[in-house]
Amino acid sequence: MKSICVYCGSSLGNKKAYAxxxxxxxxxxADAGINLVYGGASVGLMGxxxxxxxxxxxxxxxxxxxxxVDKEVSHGGLTELHIVSSMHERKALMAxxxxxxxxxxxxxxxxxxxxxxxxxxxxxxxQKPVALLNIANxxxxxxxxxxxxxxxxxxxxxxxxxxxxxxxAASLIDRMQHFVAPxxxxxxxxxEI
Length: 193
Prior knowledge:
With 193 residues, this protein is an alpha/beta fold. The protein has helices at 16-32, 44-55, 66-70, 87-97, 108-122, 140-151, 157-160, 169-177; strands at 3-7, 35-38, 60-65, 80-84, 101-103, 130-133, 163-166, 187-188, 191-192. The chain has a single domain (3-192), classed as Rossmann fold (3-Layer(aba) Sandwich). It has eight helices and nine strands. The strands form two sheets. It has a seven-stranded parallel beta sheet with strand order 4-3-2-1-5-6-7, with helices on both faces. A two-stranded antiparallel sheet has the order 8-9. The longest helix is centred in the N-terminal third of the chain and has 17 residues, at 16-32. The protein is globular, with a radius of gyration of 16 Å.
């Protein structure tokens, strides 16, 4: 893996563990020679992980829409900063530049980005690992819900397994590096697509 996209909050959240986890992930990425691709902001967990990767000698590639640059939230010290015209263009470029995806704690934007690439994986549009770094049990309820969706037969077991989760950055990166995309097919109703 050359580059991993990290989705995370533009705020710090209410636990020190979130920023500590961002720093631990940054150190793991830099030590492994894996570039960080992220949303290009200087605030919240986004700023913490970018600053930490850079402080550990790693490379950071930011992708940010012009509208957020205009609000002065872009990071000024990145290895590369791509300024795009829309959120759609941002997500597409981040996916193109990345060999895998990790979500740290975050809000609606983090979840939306995570589920978009997870859906692309389910449909076979990408064959890249998608993962949660589950810090301080932040994603426990989401993982339980996904198990419930599987039990209710809205998510196939093979597709449920597409989302990796771990509370250790090093363990998660190792699992991602050994990820093999399944050869399952997405089903609609009783038919196959």
